[in-house]
Amino acid sequence: MDDLTLLVREAVQNSWDARWPSDSLGTVGFHVRLRTLTAQQQAALVEMLDDGGLGGMPLSAVLGSRSIAVAEIADIGTCGLNGPTRADEVEDGRPRNFVDFIRNIGAPQDRDESGGTYGFGKGSYYRASEA
């Protein structure tokens, strides 16, 4: 598969795995939107990256002054990326969806109908990203 096909396949699978368990029909909405950031949005992104907002990743230097195209992937009817944003924060009974999806690699999911393991499919996001 090419990188874009793999990205969409993995994103749809992630959305399906994140559906609400109580939804017996498994209804999930999925959207992909391609757009170019406005000057204000780009400035906010560069400022966040310069402040170490993503763990000190030096992406702001890569972004420069050129326009930035982004792909937004969104789903509806899912539990979302809830829980703590730091992997070293542990709260019994609190979901860790954000940490498991964004920070951890290879963490098993706790749902019988899930399609995989947190971490391996997200490589498709990295492959599709210029950054």
Could you characterize the architecture of this molecule?
This protein has 131 residues and is an alpha+beta fold. Helix content is 34%, strand content 15%. It is built from 5 helices and 4 strands; from the N terminus they run H-E-H-H-E-H-E-E-H. Strands 1-2 form a two-stranded antiparallel sheet. The model has no long low-confidence stretch (mean pLDDT 78).
Per-chain topology:
Elements: H1 3-17, E1 29-36, H2 39-50, H3 59-63, E2 69-76, H4 97-103, E3 107-108, E4 117-118, H5 123-128
- Residue stretches low in confidence (pLDDT < 50, at least 5 long) are none
Strand content: 15-25%
Main sheet characteristics = 2 strands, antiparallel
Radius of gyration: 16 Å
In the sheet with the most strands, the strands line up as: 1-2
- How many DSSP E strands? 4
Oligomer: single chain
Query: Given the structure, what is the number of helices?
Result: 5
Roughly how many Å apart are the termini?
Answer: 21 Å
**Shape category:** globular
Brief summary:
By secondary structure, this protein is of the alpha+beta class. It contains five helices and four strands; from the N terminus they run αβααβαββα.
Keywords:
single chain, 131 residues, alpha+beta, two-stranded antiparallel ribbon, two-stranded antiparallel sheet, 5 helices, 4 strands, 34% helix, globular
